[in-house]
Amino acid sequence: MYFPLNGVQRLLEVGLIVFSGFALFLLLALLSFDPADPSWSQTGYQTSINNYAGPVGAWLADALLFYFGWIAYLLPFLVALAGYLLFKRFHDLMTLDYLILGLRLIGLVLTLLTATAISSMNFNDIFYFSSGGVIGDVVSSSLLPYFNFIGTVLLLLCGFATGLTLMTGISWLTVADAIGAACFFGVQYIVSLPQRLNARNNDDYDPFAEDLAEQEPQDNPVITQPLKAPQLNRPQSDALPITPLNAKTEAKAFYSVDTLADDQLSFSAIDEPDPSGWSDTLQQLDLPPEPEIETTLAQLTDDEDDGVEVSHLLEELPSLALLDRPDKAVNPIDPADLERVSRLVEAKLLDFNVEAKVVGVHPGPVVTRFELDLAPGVKVSKITGLSKDLARSLSAISVRVVEVIPGKSFIGLELPNQHREIVRLSEVIGDEIFEQSKSPLTMVLGKDIAGKSVVADLAKMPHLLVAGTTGSGKSVGVNVMICSLLYKSTPDDVRFLMIDPKMLELSIYEGIPHLLTEVVTDMKDAANGLRWCVGEMERRYKLMSALGVRNLKGYNAKVKEAIAEGKPLKDPLWRPSDDMRIEPPLLEKLPAIVVVIDEFADMMMIVGKKVEELIARIAQKARAAGIHLILATQRPSVDVITGLIKANIPTRIAFQVSSKIDSRTILDQQGAESLLGQGDMLYLPPGSGVPNRVHGAFVDDHEVHAVVADWKKRGRPNYIPEILSGETTEENLLPGETMEGDDGEADPLYDQAVAFVTESRRASVSGVQRKFRIGYNRAARLVEQMEHSGIVSGPGHNGNREVMAPPPPKGY
């Protein structure tokens, strides 16, 4: 298929052709150099030129050999490399880091100087030129009087290695480690080869079991860094190593003209290694298995220096190479077709006695909006009522009427495109609007009807309600939001509490270092997790109040400033009875907490009213404390999305729903029933009553696996066991609740309740509840404590209890 190039791409390809041609010309001139040809350093008398590149080639080759000697033969390859880098990394050159550019130029000059000097001192001359050229002779002759031959060679070798490091960024320590590991495993394999060949004669020989038996168990193995096996021993998943890019490189990674050529590459390296395949490879090569990275990271944390390395890994963000590249095929929308459809819309409206004129057309990746100027006296409600009739007349799946377009006096008519585009997650993450957003809670939504990327800041929402039927793209949308947060934030910035009643959608994220606890699938644990969030919210508010700040951002800024000044702040809420410490702990940066609930309706059905109260309390107060909710449900009914929840979560996203009633339940207006599905959504931003139509970005399962595997390699999650324990504290109590773990005898009404029961000789929960005008739960705890103390018996077959203790003495 033919893809026309734009202006910049044409210039880049022309530049690549010019550089490649010049490099070949130089190589041809150098290889066919004849000293008898008239050239730069001498005058010849023969009329014919033997150099295949002609007089110009003879002149250039003579000049290069005169100055560089043997090193001149490397210059054509440097020219070709320069052209390739200009072609591949043009957009990176537009945002140059001048410090790195200066270091690379210094490295290039240093490499050429030392290489020519080494060549001048150690190789024979070429033709009548010095082996290192004039430059090599000058450098070597300047150093020899001071360092002699061996000292000069050693100094030049050090300078050559330094120049290569500055120019290319190569690490000689890594090279030495790789060579050493290859030699070690090679020698080990050769030494053990005769023994293994002899053992193969036995029928019961199992090489893998023998390797395991030979390994002596170690109680506390110390691994300073991951053991590297030779390349022959590597699984296929390491064939294409993924190098993390910086933010600016990632933002432009997919806009170079080599994208089409690279589409044939295999991205199997980003998948998780198959343990079975790895074991098979080890059995074939008879080598011991490589230590797991997770074990290595766990042991690294015990060492101070290695802990710095692990922290550095957690500070790096994943590379965009883990995601699929966007499709380069442009939506084939012909202006003539748009004009034809515009006239057709006007004609069909006229058939229904509605006079309107199309004054604007805005094609998008999925739908096209036609702006209509209605004739005087025509009501918008009449157009809205004709949406299904227009869809039938225009042979469209559905037609959505936009009654109000902010800033315009027109109405909108949105028709689906014949060919819809797929909006890739990498395409939106690579956009400048995502890159320039400074908030760590920036989430990707997709693209609007004009094709512009749409991102949202969860900190400004501050909570999000997502609803849509099965197959509408709701789960993919939630995955896109989570993956975009993983591309924007480190575990120090954002932590997740994920609740997945279906045990399918969010379990894929198990093990990433962002998790506060393992993915919750038991709804009783979900209630405990939300209760912990309430307690954490109250604790953060007390900390912010003690420091005199208004939100989490101000708190972190004050803590960071105190640490930078060398005067870290101490925890003002610490009490000596809290732990065994003598002094209060120091305050550290607090990450934002994002609570993701994939199927909210199931949790409401199982746990009920208590969860609704916990969510309402978090939604009311948790914004300043940095705790945010993302609630998703496929059953947008009023018993699930209650008025209490809707009042505290104004930001909502509606995917395709089945009826206008469901649309009104989510958005307080209709329109979601006319969506197309597969990621088509209506986004109601905070502070606005007009929803925006957005086509959600798409992320495939293997992309999510790749991002999760990349984060797992950096470190293990630091789970907080108190989240799921269900411990009730003073901070996370709901209004009217008492602590579940309190002893009933500590209740101030306990003695009065005992006196009432023993005097009346009637032990019933309802009687205690009516007598003291308390709640049922509190009355039941009082009666249960009396049973535990032996005052009353257990309930009989009819539910009655017998009072065992005598009444108290009169006057007591």
Characterize this entry briefly.
This protein is α/β, with parallel strands linked by helices and 812 residues long. It is built from 30 helices and 13 strands. 33% of the residues are buried.
Q: Provide the number of structural domains.
A: 6
Low-confidence stretches: 207-310
The major pleated sheet works out as: 9 strands, mixed
Query: In the CATH hierarchy, what is the class of the largest domain?
Result: Alpha Beta
Amino-to-carboxy terminus distance: 99 Å
**Approximate helicity band:** 40-55%
Choose one word for the global shape.
flat
Number of extended strands: 13
**Based on the structure, what is the oligomeric state of the protein chains?**
single chain
What class do helices, strands and sheet pairing give?
alpha/beta
What is the name of the CATH topology of the largest domain? Rossmann fold
- Side by side, the strands of the main sheet go 6-5-13-12-11-7-10-9-8
CATH-assigned homologous superfamily of the largest domain: P-loop containing nucleotide triphosphate hydrolases
CATH architecture call of the largest domain: 3-Layer(aba) Sandwich
How would you describe the overall organization of this protein?
The chain is an alpha/beta fold and 812 residues long. It has six domains: 1-95, no CATH class; 96-170, no CATH class; 197-217 and 224-312, no CATH class; 335-416, 2-Layer Sandwich (Threonyl-tRNA Synthetase, Chain A, domain 2), CATH 3.30.980; 425-529 and 590-714, 3-Layer(aba) Sandwich (Rossmann fold), CATH 3.40.50; 737-812, Winged helix-like DNA-binding domain superfamily/Winged helix DNA-binding domain (Arc Repressor Mutant, subunit A). A hairpin with a 4-residue loop joins strand 5 and strand 6 (453-457). Helix 1 (7-31) runs antiparallel to helix 3 (75-88), helix 2 (54-68) crosses helix 6 (133-168) and helix 29 (765-772) crosses helix 30 (776-789). The protein is flat, with a radius of gyration of 36 Å. Residues 207-310 have low confidence and may be disordered. Residues 790-812 are annotated as: Disordered. GO terms for molecular function: ATP binding; DNA binding. The chain crosses the membrane at residues 12-33, 64-87, 99-123, 143-163, 170-191.
